[in-house]
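Question thread 4412

I'm putting together a teaching handout and wanted feedback from people who do this every day. The idea is simple: show students a protein as raw sequence, then show them the structure tokens that encode its fold, then repeat with a second protein so they can compare. Below is the first pair exactly as I plan to print it.
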Amino acid sequence: MTPYTAPQTVPPQSGGTSPVPAGGRDRYFDLLRAIALFRVVLYHLVGWAWLPLVFPSMGVMFALAGSLMARSLARPAFQVIRGRVRRLLPPLWVLGAAGITAMLVEGWRPGPSAVFWLLPLSDPPFLAAGWAGDLAEPLWYLRAYLWFVLLSPLLLRCLRKLPWATLAAPLALSFGLAAGYLSMPERIDSALTDFSTFGACWILGMARQEGILARLPRYLVPSVAPFVMLAGIWWARRDGFGSGAELDGIPPADALWSLGAVMMLLHFSPSWQSWPPKLRQWDSVITLLNARAVTVYLWHNVCILGAAALWDVMWDVDLLAEHVPWLLESWVPVLLLAWALIAGCILVFGWAEDLAAKRRPRLWPNGEPRRRSRSHTA
């Protein structure tokens, strides 16, 4: 999840049918990222098991990040990795500063593993308290993203030489881990599981940027992707999905379903330099979510916890409890309140993303000043 930059276009790649945005992104990518973030917040609030089937947010976000990474690697790899890591760490440190301070007050004492709050190569430690678990839960994404960034030069080299073997390798690893063929310490096992689950999506994003998908026959992806998704559903049902197990708890099924869905989304992706008329009204919201993607992702769990606690207080209002208990039991007000708290986090903590990108800090980067400036000069 990288900060928003205005899309520009370059000529089509060999075999392509549409321009490829400079930096590997366009308005369509921004829309997918915004939908992915909204779906993540909704899923962590309501927990509906079918939501990841409707839109596999994590697979989509890793695919978009892989495409951006492949585009960036036209520059020296060390510079690219340093820039990506620099953009990732300051928002994490802001979260860690708040979380660690609260945990110290509650009696937590840091050990050697506390270093992972500075560089999330593995899971950082946290209290057993519910709020601390909610605070730390999203950090697996940063850990996985960091490992993908570090491995990207090697993955891109392998993709160019052996594209299909490189794409299939994470899936093979996922099934190997599920079958128990590999036994690793917990910290290594969790990183390998994340890589095997979403590595194919990251590599698929790189393949799109490299023009590999554009060189395929147009019928191939729509013909293959549904069978990949069906295989994921079959494996999920085999492991108890629908009877208590969630898709993200069945890595091979999650990997197959996410890969198939991302294949379809990237295959049919338009290249939007400007919004279609029906989407123009959402420009500010989508721009803001892209500019503050890391902040939203890091803080949304705590905001959901806070929103639920605040809404529970409404049960103490006898008038509401007696006459509209259905409203107090509804998840909709909690969702709205959670997004209000997320907006507060954007205002209070979002500046860290601008500093990480070496930009002037902005409170509410929804693109409005830039658009007004263009209208004045027209």
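The second pair follows. I'd like the answer to focus on this one:
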Amino acid sequence: MLRRQLLHFGAFTLGGLPVSLVKAEGVAQKKLVVVMLRGAVDGLSVVAPYGERAYAASRPQIALPPPGADDGLLKLDSLFGLHPSLAPLKRHWDGGQLAFVHASGSPDPTRSHFDAQDYFESGTPGRKSTPDGWMNRLLTALPGEPAPTRAISQGSTPPRIFAGPASVASLGLGPNALRRRAIDDPSLQAGLAKLYASDAQLSSTLRDTTEGRGEMARSMAAAEPRSMDPTADGGAPSARSFAADARRLGQLIRKDPHTQLAFTAVGGWDTHVNQGAARGQLANRLASLGEGLDALSVGLGDSLKDTVIVVASEFGRTLRQNGNGGTDHGRGNVIWLLGGPVAGGQVLGEWPGLDTSALADGRDLAVRTDFRQVLSPLLQRHLGLSETALATVFPGGPHTWRYADKLLRA
């Protein structure tokens, strides 16, 4: 029972990495936050190609009106517009901190949520045998020394992306995410330390767990008091709830000098029925997401200048709406990039167009950019990974991308 309790309250993938707290005074840690949209968000509504005639023709009830019209898109350029519910993020686009990579995704053709999410999180599309997640491999490959809070996963369930031997700290949801638990009692910690003294792995797990929880508690105690207001969301899955959790994560990253990697997920994007256009089901969820991502940037504060936030989903949705006013599982999607290092104000990638001949299987936006081609230059140029280290994070590649030089600021 004690072993299970320790693993439950501690970081869920704590392995045998030694803990050595780095001194970060005067050193700006480069950070990466990954936000996964589980359920396959409709990228053709997030960044809508209003300049393509086939867009509105294929979606008579759910196409977004063009910029300038009532409930119209927020103009990005002559081809693309941002969903109006994402208005809180427009300031980041205008400020050059938000970019998109369209027609991107996994090269594997599966339309299974389970398989596609597994492939994104393992970083090995088409290979189900990969035992660990790419962010755990990244954690072991990062330059510098490990620390118990170098990587944080926010959520109630351990994600596949952090599966592996490297230590990962777990942050729950809601204002009670770091409430005291039995494992925080010094007497229990001392008893467990004595009990596990002869077991190197469990001793390491206990040390990482207690130090990681203590580090996060100290960081959150130093954050603004309003971030821990229990009336902020009441645990409800609403825009306010996600914004509060996202802001809390951003503040924790900002206050803890050791944190470099973080992951969180947002569900509810499988819009087969009554998807809506500028208003409705999808619009409400995008409003929640936009408010949350903006809150994350606010929580990060000055750390945003050293942080890249990646927002991605397992696959996209069909070009044509279905008979239920929704969209079905598709292929190509859009990856979002937000942060100070991002060369924002642009939609990157090779756009294949929406002509029938250009669609994947005659129905879907084609994938022209592998998601690993977007992530790889971030890991190398932003986090400082070597070619050799990158090959361990994404074995088999691809690592190169023709637009890589345009992704980050010089």
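Top answer:
Good format. For the second protein you could add a caption like this: The CA atoms of residues 152 and 262 lie 5 Å apart. The chain has one domain: 2-406.
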